[in-house]
Structures are given as structure tokens and as C-alpha cells.
Specification:
This protein is of the alpha/beta class and 443 residues long. The protein has helices at residues 2-22, 51-58, 73-82, 86-89, 107-113, 119-125, 174-186, 207-213, 220-245, 290-293, 319-327, 343-348, 426-441, and strands at residues 26-32, 60-67, 129-134, 148-149, 190-195, 252-258, 294-300, 308-310, 314-315, 351-357, 371-378, 381-386, 406-410. Helices cover 31% and strands 17% of the residues.
Length: 443
């Protein structure tokens, strides 16, 4: 039934004409890259300045307890696109062949991936103009079902994870602004995938920002990261200002999420398990800890959504159902995410979960052979279970230091996961382990 509806959507959209399109909101999805959940002004950071995102938060529902499905960009983004867990969409790491990074080996996997329903294809089929910019792993923008975009995805021309598209934000905003202007001129609703590789490395911010954050006692890598967080915030402000200048902000939904967390290498530089190639702290990117998987999620819709703060858990798998509800589209029946704008449904949710696989390798025929962790949050409790899936390259040692099978945290009293309560709470451990097994079996 879902496929039949999608086939009919372009015909229905054409019959409705531009007058009906004008009633449908534009949708802008802003995806940050490698930024810890706490590293925003609106999340309470005392030193990092993010005035533009702070202003957006003032106009949004702020889901303070948002989570991604995986603490690594490619599988995280794949879940945002499909609403499926990494075990189901089968994108579990960045590359099939580890740090050799031969993107041509990903082609069969990408072909299978693009057979899955995605929020982008659904919007395109519903009559939206759709634009890709920034981080994008799955071939070209055409492969992803966008009507317009930047990334060519050619493996023979450095087409791995965004290529030309990675110019957005750091170097220019003009391709995105031209797309918005053309959409306004053609009176068509539009969807924007704005995923600049920011504040991701290389941490090479403008000198004026770097100097702002350099201070006695602050490590150089921390100062550069802080500066890049503000640099990213400036690009978000530029995007919002363009919507205001074109007088379409009132009819535009803006959603913000980050693909995974990050913390500077120097914050645990004395750890003997730190690898020489690793640019980030062990319990951040690539790990199941809060600094790796937690992110604020913002949803702004002027005149339709009252600004508020919510402690309800949000998940990257919710993006597809939420955007579908906003655009009036059907949702595939196998999705487990929810419409974040449905307060009643949102309030009933008590449990979310996710996975961590080997950072550098995907075992495509059996995706969970490279499984390293599963995690589950039930109310205020969080369980992390350690697995030791196959690491198929000598570089995949990120998790070798960890031999604890279970970790249990009370996130209300211990949001930074400093005290493992597994031994002290056997009943709680048993309950969450059973829930984790249920969630794992449903994939």
C-alpha cells in the first residue's frame, strides 16, 4: 500500500497545482557534525558561543534528550534517511574495507540501501524540490533521490563522503541560497539537507574565532574545536537570515540535530589506550556513552509550534515520521520512530536504543558481526552492553580497552556516566537486559 501511495503522489501533486504547494511548509534539516550534546549555549555551555542556534532554540521545541542510532556519521545519517536501525539498513560503519577507504567497494551496499524507502525520496515524490549539501555518503545526490544537489559521489574522483558538497558552510553558502531562491520563484515547497562537515575536523576556524577561544590553561585542540562550534553556528545564522530576507521563514520548518558527539583528544591524552591516529576522546565519537550518542533536537515551526523544552526522549529514527507528518506523507509501516509533534504519543515513550559497530569496517552480509555495543535508555536508566564483534582491520582498536560486559547508569543523577551501578542494582540490570534483548530481537 505504501508503494502505491508513493506512486500516486506525483500525480496528485500536479493536479493540486502551485496554490496547494504554497500551503505546504518548506523543511530545512540542519545536521551538525561531531559536536557534544552539551556544547551549545542553549544547552548550558558557559564558554562556547552559539547565538544563532540559541535564537533558534528560543523559537523551537527543544528536545534536550535526543539520541542518534549510532555514534558515527555514516550509519547515523542513514538512520535519519530511512528511519531504520543500522542493523536493518546495513550501514554500520564508514567503509567496507576499513581505512583503505576504497569507496568503489561500497557500490553494491549502496544499491541495496537505495532500494529502501527514504524521507528524501518520499518528499521528492510528493512534489517537493529537494536539495543535498554537505556530508553525504551514499553516492551522488541523484542516487539519493534529490532533485538538486552538490555531491557527485564518483569514487574515482574522491567521491567518498561528500566531495564537492563539503564546500558548503566552510567555503560558500551560495549553491544553497540559489536553490532556495529558485524554489521561491517557482512557488514550490522545498526540502534542504544542510549537513556541513562542521564543527568536524579539520579544526581550521577563522583566526578571529580561534583567538577568541585561546586562553591560558586551555589546550590548543580544545580552543580550535570551540572556535569551530561558533563558526558552524554562524553558518546556521546565515541560513536563517536568508529565509527571513526571502520572507519565507514563517512557512518553513527548521529541524536541527547532530550526527554524533565529540570531545578533544587532549581531554584524555593520558589514557594508555589512546591510538596515535585518533583525534578524539575515547568516550565520545564512536562510543555508546552520552558524549558519543546524545544530541539536542530542535523543531521550529513559527505560528504552529509553541516554543518549549521537553525532557521526552527523541531519536534520529523520529525524523522520517515527523517530516512525513509535516508534509502530509505516508510513513512505511516498519518504522519504529514517532512523530515528535504528537505530544500524546511522545509522552508514552519510555525506552529508546541504539548500537555501536566497528568504526572502520562493515561486514555487509552479516552487519552485526562487527557489533561492539548495544545501549538502551529506559526512563532515567541507561544500560550499555559490551560485545566483541569482529574487528577486521588492525586499526580498529577503539574498543579493545573495554572488557566490562555491562554498565548501568542513572542519568538523572549522573548524566556524564561516572559511576557504574550494575553490581549494586541486579534487579534493574536484569530488567533492562530483558528490554535490550526485546529491542534487539525486533530488528
Amino acid at each position: 500500500m505504501y508503494q502505491l501511495i508513493l506512486l500516486l503522489l506525483p500525480l496528485v501533486s500536479a493536479l493540486l497545482g502551485s496554490a496547494a504547494f504554497a500551503e505546504r511548509p518548506n523543511i530545512v534539516l540542519i545536521i551538525g557534525d561531531d559536536q557534544a550534546w552539551s556544547d551549545y549555549g542553549f544547552m548550558g555551555h558557559a564558554e562556547i558561543h552559539t547565538p544563532n542556534l540559541d535564537a533558534l532554540a528560543q523559537r523551537s521545541i527543544v528536545f534536550e534528550r535526543g539520541y542518534v542510532a549510532s555514534p558515527l556519521c555514516r550509519p547515523s545519517l542513514a538512520t535519519m534517511l530511512t528511519g531504520l536501525s543500522p542493523s536493518l539498513h546495513r550501514i554500520t560503519g564508514n567503509d567496507v574495507d576499513g581505512r583503505n577507504r576504497r569507496a568503489e567497494l561500497d557500490l553494491p551496499l549502496r544499491e541495496k540501501f537505495h532500494q529502501l524507502p527514504s524521507v528524501v525520496r518520499s518528499l521528492t515524490d510528493a512534489g517537493y524540490r529537494t536539495f543535498q549539501s554537505g556530508k553525504w555518503w551514499e553516492g551522488s545526490w541523484q542516487d539519493g533521490g534529490f532533485t538538486h544537489g552538490m555531491t557527485h559521489g564518483d569514487p574515482s574522483n574522491r567521491g567518498r563522503h561528500g566531495d564537492i558538497g563539503l564546500q558548503i558552510g566552510r567555503n560558500t553558502m551560495q549553491p544553497l541560497f540559489r536553490f532556495i531562491d529558485d524554489s521561491v520563484k517557482e512557488q514550490q515547497p522545498f526540502f534542504v539537507w544542510y549537513a556541513p562537515m562542521m564543527p568536524h575536523t579539520p579544526h581550521n576556524p577563522p583566526a578571529r574565532l580561534l583567538q577568541k577561544y585561546q586562553a591560558a590553561g586551555r589546550a590548543d585542540d580544545v580552543a580550535a574545536y570551540y572556535a569551530c562550534c561558533e563558526w558552524f553556528d554562524e553558518t546556521c545564522g546565515s541560513l536563517v537570515s536568508h529565509l527571513e530576507d526571502r520572507r519565507i521563514l514563517e512557512n518553513t520548518v527548521i529541524i536541527f540535530i547532530c550526527d554524533n558527539g565529540w570531545a578533544a583528544r587532549s581531554t584524555n591524552s593520558r589514557d594508555p589506550h589512546q591510538e596515535s591516529w585518533q583525534q578524539y576522546a575515547l568516550r565520545s565519537k564512536g562510543s555508546p556513552f552520552e558524549a558519543g550518542i546524545r544530541t539536542p533536537v530542535l523543531v521550529s515551526w513559527p505560528g504552529r509550534i509553541a516554543p518549549s523544552r521537553s525532557s521526552d526522549p527523541a531519536h534520529a529514527s523520529d525524523l522520517f515520521p515527523t517530516i512525513a507528518a509535516i508534509a502530509g506523507m505516508p510513513v512505511p509501516e516498519n518504522l519504529t520512530g514517532i512523530n515528535l509533534l504528537d505530544e500524546e504519543v511522545r509522552g508514552l515513550r519510555e525506552t529508546i536504543s541504539g548500537v555501536t559497530h566497528s568504526v572502520f569496517n562493515m561486514t555487509t552480509d552479516h552487519p552485526d558481526r562487527a557489533l561492539q555495543y548495544r545501549w538502551l535508555i529506559h526512563r532515567n536508566w541507561k544500560l550499555i552492553r559490551r560485545y566483541k564483534g569482529l574487528d577486521t582491520t588492525q586499526y580498529s582498536r577503539l574498543h579493545e580497552w573495554d572488557n566490562q560486559e555491562f554498565r548501568l547508569f542513572d542519568l538523572t543523577s549522573d548524566p556524564h556516566e561516572t559511576t557504574n551501578l550494575a553490581d549494586e542494582n541486579p534487579e534493574q540490570l536484569e530488567q533492562l537486559s530483558a528490554l535490550l534483548q526485546e529491542f534487539s530481537a525486533s530488528e
